[in-house]
Specification:
By secondary structure, this protein is α+β, with helices and mostly antiparallel strands. It contains six helices and nine strands. It has helices spanning 4-15, 19-25, 32-39, 47-56, 79-83, 124-127, and strands spanning 2-3, 69-70, 97-100, 105-109, 112-115, 121-123, 131-136, 139-143, 152-153.
Length: 162
C-alpha cells in the first residue's frame, strides 16, 4: 500500500512530465504548487482534483487504484494534519450557516443558501468561493483568510457569538 502522492508522482514520471506540465494537462485546474503538496503527502486532494489528475493521465476515477492508496486518514496521521485539510463543497450541507467576504450571512438548507437580510436564495456552488467562515452548532468549522485561499477546516473550533 502506498500514499496518493506516491501514486501521483509515479504516474507523472511514467508519463515523462514535470509538475508544471501536469498542471497544464489539467488545463490549469490544479496548480504546480498543489501538485507538489499532493506528491509530498502534505495535502489531500479533493475528489474533483483526483478526477482532473486521473483524466490528465488518461484514467477515469474508477481506474484509480483506491484499494492500493492510503489516503492518510488512518491512525498514523496526526489530528492536526487531519483538521488542516480542505473543506469541500460536499461538506457544506452539514453546516448551519456561512459568512462571505462581502459580509453577508447565509443560512444553509441542503445545497441552497438563504441570505438572512434579503431572503435571496443562492446555490452553494455559486457561493462556495465567496465563503469566508462556515458555522455549525455555533462553532466555526472552516475559514479562509483571503478570497484566493482554500477553505480549510479550523484546528480548534471556536464558539460564535450570538
Amino acid at each position: 500500500m502506498y500514499r496518493f502522492g506516491e501514486w501521483l508522482k509515479e504516474n507523472r514520471r511514467l508519463s515523462g512530465w514535470s509538475q508544471v506540465e501536469l498542471s497544464e494537462k489539467t488545463f490549469g485546474e490544479i496548480s504546480q504548487p498543489a501538485i507538489s503538496q499532493y506528491e509530498q503527502n502534505r495535502s489531500v486532494p479533493s475528489i474533483a482534483d483526483i478526477d482532473h489528475l486521473a483524466r490528465a493521465f488518461g484514467h477515469t476515477l474508477a481506474s484509480v487504484p483506491w484499494d492500493a492508496i492510503d489516503s492518510g486518514y488512518g491512525a498514523k496521521r496526526s489530528v492536526t494534519k487531519l483538521e488542516r485539510r480542505r473543506f469541500d463543497l460536499k461538506e457544506l450541507p452539514q453546516a448551519d450557516s456561512v459568512r462571505t467576504f462581502d459580509g453577508k450571512t447565509y443560512e444553509l438548507r441542503g445545497f441552497i443558501g438563504i441570505e438572512k437580510a434579503s431572503g435571496e436564495a443562492v446555490q452553494l456552488t455559486q457561493l462556495y468561493y465567496r465563503i469566508r467562515t462556515v458555522v455549525c452548532d455555533a462553532q466555526v468549522l472552516a475559514k479562509r483568510k483571503n478570497p484566493d485561499d482554500e477553505l480549510i477546516h479550523v484546528k480548534k473550533r471556536k464558539r460564535v457569538r450570538q
